Amino acid sequence: MKKNKKVIITCAVTGAMHTPTMSDALPFTPEDIAQQSVDAAEAGASIIHLHARNPETGEPTGDPKVYEQFLPVINERTDAVINLTTGGSPTMTVEERLWAAMEVKPEMCSLNMGSLNFAMFPLADRYKSWKYSWEEPYVRNSDDFIFRNTFRDIEKIMNIMGEHGTKFEHECYDVGHLYNLAYFADRGLIKPPFFIQTIFGIMGGIGADEDNLMFMRKTADKLFGDDYHWSVLAAGKNQMPFSTQAALMGGNVRVGLEDSLFIGRGELATSNAQQVSKIKRILSEFSLEIATPEEARQILNLKG
Ligand code: KMH
Ligand code: ZN
């Protein structure tokens, strides 16, 4: 792993899994997504990871026209690195998922490195109420969803977005996903250094256990040596503890309402910026410095 002098904070502001009925703080209109992104950047996030949502219902959408309603505002009011999803939501086709990223050609985009069962709720119930808690942030009645990321899907996204010079946030939800990345690297389809986001505590992926944090890190070290930047996100209650541990181990962090709606035990966060401020405050207690967007661009060698 490459050890940066400064920690890169990514903020994932809305995602596709949480719904507006779960928290009033979750932004879904273009205005709110823009404002919360600006606030998160001002609080210390140098990368903003974005999904779009139907402004009326909050449902995930891949439509670039919706992205166009908030991206220019964020670009005008911050110099944050824009990172667009290519994961979309587990119900979208790969084409829908790529639609906005292909148009926008952002500095960064996500690239999910394998298929998995992904905790979700039946579509019919999405905008009604359901069980949702600090202990169990993902609802367990989604037994028939596959978040599809076949080798062909991955290669397609890699080729199309690679041609635009977009840097990938390689989303690795389990150990095998690291090996998948190594496979593409071995084939020469992608060049290091990689930005690897190891993900813990998504139901269907590797659990949020400390041993697993070490294991993912050691496996990445074994496969990629120091040719990768490491970042960590953990869902729900594990978000802050795992981010903190990763930063103490020389990694980078991701927070945001996409990954957890909470700020503390049982307490909903009031905004994305609140989570960014919290992790920044924790890291500053350990004398860890935060990378500015410009520093993040240099560290990750982004196209700018
Ligand atoms: N929802 C996160 C766990 C993507 O946008 O491509 C992973 C994610 C996927 O951010
Ligand atoms: Zn995402």
TrEMBL record:
Signal peptide: none
Cofactor(s) for this UniProt protein: Zn(2+)
UniProt source species: Paraglaciecola agarilytica NO2
UniProt keyword Ribonucleoprotein present: no
Pfam entry (one): BKACE
InterPro entries, per database record: Aldolase_TIM, BKACE
UniProt keyword list: Metal-binding, Transferase, Zinc
Alphabetized Gene3D superfamilies for the sequence: Aldolase class I
Protein name: 3-keto-5-aminohexanoate cleavage protein
